[in-house]
Structure formats: structure tokens, C-alpha cells
Amino acid sequence: MKSRSQALEEHIGRIKTKLTRLGELRPGVLSEQYNVCGSPTCRCKADPPHKHGPYQQLSWSRKSKSRTRFIKESELRTVRAQISNYKRLQGLVGEWVDASIELCDIKRKLEREK
Ligand SMILES: [Zn+2]
Fold it and tell me: How many A from CA of 75 to the centre of ligand 1?
């Protein structure tokens, strides 16, 4: 029968393989934004206002800095895939850490029982 530690080692091996196959990464969240322009007679100044948009905006934070960027319609697919890859990376790293903690505890216990 396969030991728990063996199963964990195999699980970690599969996580590592998945990590090497991840494509482009981007942290962030997409949101829809509506804007007003500079023209005083534009429909966005009407009552009720008819604002321009929606525009897709990507917000992310990195090294304690928050940033935003507008994403073109033509870039949306790629950016969505990058965001999804990034989430996957975080999920896999979380799984690896959990498996590793359990594996380290098993090894530590075995070491002490010697
Ligand atoms: Zn306008």
C-alpha cells in the first residue's frame, strides 16, 4: 500500500508539472467603467447622463502599489487568460504548501520515532 508521504510526494510532483505548463500571468481584476468626456454638449452631460462605455479596466497591485489600465476589446481574451493563469498559479502554490507542510510533519514524526 502506498504510504501517505509517498502519495504527498507524487501530488507535489504533479503540482510542479502543472506549474511549468502555466502560460502568461497577470494579477488583477477586470471591471466595467463609464466615463464622461470634455465636451459640454455631449450626451454624457445630459440629464440623465448617458456616459461613455463600458470600458474594461484592469486593477492590480504589486509591491504595495495599486495600478489600473484600460484594456481594449481586442486584448480582453488574452488578459482574461492571463488573470486565470495567475489564479491557477496561486491555487497550485497553495496546494503545494499544504502538501509540503503535511509531508514535513510526517517526516518529522518518523524522525522522532527512531
Ligand atoms: Zn461625452
Answer: 24
Helices (H), the chain: 4-20, 76-113
Distance 55 CA to ligand 1 centre (A): 14
Q: What is the pTM of this model?
A: 0.81
Quickly tell me which residue has 502555466 as its cell: 22
- DSSP 8-state code for residue 48: S
Bridge-partner residues for 58, per DSSP?
30, 69
Cα distances (Å, whole numbers) of residue 97 to 56, 58, 92, 113: 34, 29, 9, 24
CA of 61 to the centre of ligand 1 (A): 30
Q: What is the pLDDT along the chain (114 residues), one digit of tens a residue?
A: 679 999 999 999 999 999 999 999 999 999 999 999 999 999 999 999 999 999 999 999 999 999 999 999 999 999 999 999 999 999 999 999 999 999 999 999 999 988
State the Cα–Cα distance between residues 83 and 24, nearest whole angstrom: 9
30 CA to centre of ligand 1 in angstroms? 23
